[in-house]
Amino acid sequence: MKFAVDSYADCHCDIFITPADSATFVLGMQITDDTLNPPNLVTITWGLTAIVIYTGGTQGLQNALMIAALPFSVVIMLTGTSLFTAAATDPLTKKNRR
């Protein structure tokens, strides 16, 4: 009886993994301009995204995206700071203030 239960669980695992692998492969091909062998990094990224959605739903995906966007937000803040600094020290701006 235990053997039947184990092969039943293996069957369900194969039914989930095969389409997921195919889907990540197709998405990787589409992202890399229809390359027949997309890079493993692209395929792994799509696989991780699918796992995040499967385990945590959209809330998990939102959290992952916010963590990934944190370095970019720091760059945006530094860009805004340097923009205001450059505008304050611009000779034309100083000339128009007088």
Automatic annotation (TrEMBL):
Pfam families: BCCT
Membrane topology of the entry: Multi-pass membrane protein
Cellular component terms per the entry's GO annotation: plasma membrane
InterPro entries (alphabetical): BCCT_transptr
UniProt keyword annotations, A-Z: Cell membrane, Membrane, Transmembrane, Transmembrane helix, Transport
Molecular function (Gene Ontology), one example: transmembrane transporter activity
Localization terms from the record: Cell membrane
DNA-binding as UniProt keyword: no
Primary location class: membrane
Chain ranges passing through the membrane: 64-88
Keyword Transmembrane on entry: yes
Signal peptide: none
Family: Belongs to the BCCT transporter (TC 2.A.15) family.
Identification of the protein by name: Glycine betaine transporter
Species this chain originates from: Planococcus antarcticus DSM 14505
Lineage: Bacteria, Bacillati, Bacillota, Bacilli, Bacillales
